[in-house]
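hey
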């Protein structure tokens, strides 16, 4: 009886043992380190991709609008807002000239709070806005930052509470339609 159970156990482990040989073993190589820059120096880390099979044409222009509505916990840098910085950095790092990238972000919903001045953020959430330096760097690199006027009104935010780089639209829907009519392609988060 014991031999039968042992044989059954060994046979049942057979597929797992065979599949274990197919699992890649970790190598002693260090994990690749993300790069920062060349467009947004302190934000937007990315990993280079060696020899991609899908190559960006040298004459390509990328017109992109990021639709951002989600927010993380207050006091945290928004990875959603950092995505446009990563987009700029990784494409410039891959050889696309920054002048060939035209980015806009349209912010609405809970993410509206991430566009507040340090003073307004402090009054409402008890800390300086962790996204201020990122937004200033992106605006300096030519990224258009637009807040939904409807989200601002429903959230009880005054125009003066937003960073000076922020433009207010009638609504996020309005801004997204206008930007897409101008040739921007939407990436939603």
């Amino acid at each position: 009886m014991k031999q039968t159970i042992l044989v059954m156990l060994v046979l049942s482990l057979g597929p797992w043992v065979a599949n274990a040989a197919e699992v890649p073993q970790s190598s002693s190589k260090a994990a690749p380190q993300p790069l920062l820059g060349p467009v947004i120096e302190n934000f937007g880390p990315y990993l280079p991709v060696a020899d991609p099979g899908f190559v960006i044409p040298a004459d390509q222009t990328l017109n992109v609008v990021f639709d951002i509505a989600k927010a993380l916990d207050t006091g945290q840098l928004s990875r959603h807002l950092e995505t446009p910085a990563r987009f700029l950095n990784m494409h410039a790092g891959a050889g696309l000239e920054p002048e060939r990238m035209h980015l806009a972000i349209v912010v609405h919903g809970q993410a509206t709070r991430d566009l507040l001045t340090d003073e307004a953020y402090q009054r409402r959430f008890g800390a300086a806005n962790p996204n201020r330096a990122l937004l200033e760097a992106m605006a300096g690199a030519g990224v258009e930052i637009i807040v939904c006027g409807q989200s601002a009104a429903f959230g009880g935010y005054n125009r003066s509470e937003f960073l000076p780089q922020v433009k207010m639209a009638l609504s996020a829907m309005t801004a997204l339609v206008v930007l897409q009519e101008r040739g921007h392609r939407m990436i939603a988060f």
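Confidence is low (pLDDT under 50) at residues 1-23. DSSP finds six helices and five strands in the chain.
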